[in-house]
Known about the structure:
Two copies of one chain form a homodimer.
Chain A: E1 6-16, H1 24-30, E2 35-40, H2 44-47, H3 50-60, E3 64-68, H4 77-89, E4 94-99, H5 101-113, H6 119-123, E5 135-139, E6 151-156, E7 161-166, E8 174-177, H7 187-205, H8 212-234, H9 239-251, H10 266-277, H11 283-298, H12 303-314, H13 319-332, H14 349-356, H15 370-380
Parallel strand pairs in A: 1-8, 2-3, 2-4, 4-5, 5-8
Antiparallel strand pairs in A: 6-7
Helix pairs in contact in A: 1-3, 4-5, 7-8, 7-9, 7-11, 8-9, 10-11, 10-14, 11-13, 11-15, 12-13, 14-15
Amino acid sequence: MDMTNFTFSNPTRLLFGVGRIQEIGKEIKKEGCKKILLVAGGGSIKKNGVYDTVATSLRENGIQWIELWGVVPNPVLSKVMEGIRMAKDNDIDGVLAVGGGSTIDTAKAVASGIYLDDVWASFLGKEKIEKALPLFVVLTISATGSESNGNFVITNEETKQKLGNYSPLVYPKVSIVDPSAQQTLPWNQTANGACDALAHIMESYFTGVGNETTLFVDEALMKAIIDATDKLLINQKDIEARSNLAWAATLALNGVSASQLKGDWASHDIEHAISALYPDVAHGAGLAVVFPAWITFVWKENEPTFRRWAKNVWDTDDVLVAVERMKTTFTRWDLPVSLKALSISKDAIPSIAAKATEVGKPGTVKKLSTEDVAKILEIAY
Amino acid sequence: MDMTNFTFSNPTRLLFGVGRIQEIGKEIKKEGCKKILLVAGGGSIKKNGVYDTVATSLRENGIQWIELWGVVPNPVLSKVMEGIRMAKDNDIDGVLAVGGGSTIDTAKAVASGIYLDDVWASFLGKEKIEKALPLFVVLTISATGSESNGNFVITNEETKQKLGNYSPLVYPKVSIVDPSAQQTLPWNQTANGACDALAHIMESYFTGVGNETTLFVDEALMKAIIDATDKLLINQKDIEARSNLAWAATLALNGVSASQLKGDWASHDIEHAISALYPDVAHGAGLAVVFPAWITFVWKENEPTFRRWAKNVWDTDDVLVAVERMKTTFTRWDLPVSLKALSISKDAIPSIAAKATEVGKPGTVKKLSTEDVAKILEIAY
Lengths: 381, 381
């Protein structure tokens, strides 16, 4: 066994359940905030009633707010800068994200960036996050786990870099996950989210061997995600399945699934290179393309764990059969499983491979060279 | 599905791994404590080197301390009172438990009791915990999960009451779990601990139906505990198995295994009645006797979940066969599986049943009357 020591620490208070969004104002008041920046996406929260519930709760608790709209998938630095300016100009004392991972990540960058000389420098490791405004979340799509961790990913449109950042200071104080708010999501967002959550578990899982407790738990979470998503494919309003998918997606990246394990993250690095160059590619869709190819390329590096994954999650002794079953599942969920399906040409492979390795060789199961990444992308083509 | 809303919140920073006990002094210093009360049991920590490591770390970080020794299994109120007096007389600003569940629970009662008029009143719900000294833990036996929650159980020797208490204020600030510190435990303590952890999961698990995510996770944790304990039966120094058992025992009662679920706790209430009347009965051993009988009595009240437990944990379609397999496992671990084996006579059943129901009917799967508890104890006899 890889005797990785670890620290489990997750200060976020997570309120889970139907009808809980109305508690947000009271929670923000408890933390002593009086005027907050509300960060949101394209407007779906105005259609599904979430915005009204939030606004009513804020008003009832005497919280003032201003609004930053227009966060897009693969959220961008220019929107973060806009948020920082608004927060500074309006004496904001807290940030509330109402949306999914992109909205939360933008809110994290604003909450920490307001105290930095140059927020992008913190993504490059050149400036350290020492302080952040208190952050609150009302989650409207389960996928990234950002509602319950200190991670955030932002794309710099000018440099075409999509980089991750982390600070223990940007864990949300309070996150509310109401699965009923996700009943009207477009199907592709549900499927992308499920794939992202699965990928988060796999990034940790495959680096383990002998860490039975977390390996068993991670298999449980993978089975729960597949089970719930298949049920939602039949009935997108199935509140039981929504609850199970939502809670599994939170556990997929709140520290539980990664405990005892090192983490690989090469597939995420490759996907980030793809969506940095092709911003229309949804993160979950990109992962559906990259992950099967990555497994096909690296599985002999940690054979016992890839074999138990095949057995315990996909009911086969053959890793490559398991990969095919995973691809069949993604296809059933209407996710792409090839670069071609993302409308990316074979000629683009060298530039994606170069981008994925520009800050070093990604991966733990296998440290990937630029050539390795190119081979994975060819398998994915 | 039972659409139970829940809040997941666990502020404890848990440092897990071999060699981490030496970090305790630095962590206590970080929290600003200067003079602490060190709470400990019967002296095993002096034999296995844990005490020396802790003392060195405290000295190196300039932390002064006084020591409260002699916490016993089924920890008692008189020891809590002694600790409160020592803490008050010595201007203590933090409490450090070095030991297992009994030691931690005593430390929690001292940390909160120092601010109460009458600490026992808080167990009776007559006084509220509004404040507590910061609490730190170095865990030496994985069992109760007390290193990562706000629960504590104390026995009042005078009234022969064994009562639980809870406050969000007594979650440890920092807990250190070094599985290598458990390599020299007597076998019965390892087995009792494993049984206690299994029981914590089952108390939540059996109240679920359709909550697939947590049900899958709980099955994973049960399998991990059984797997690790069987490996330790062969080699008690197996550090991989120690790690897996330790981490599963923490997850068994840190909020993860109970999420989405209501919790039953009748078996714990019955066991508490037994060990209140027979203080020599170890908590884990009492649970090994009560739990199989409780399942036998109540399983038809939530048949789908008892059946999936039989299938997914014990590989049988028959719940009663699963119960027998669980008893066989406990017997293999040298745990008692009958009241008789605890040297409790059949005549004692009415008084235990009366005690278990004196503050109300225990249970969620089935609310148990005094007669129901007597029937369970007869099955257990």
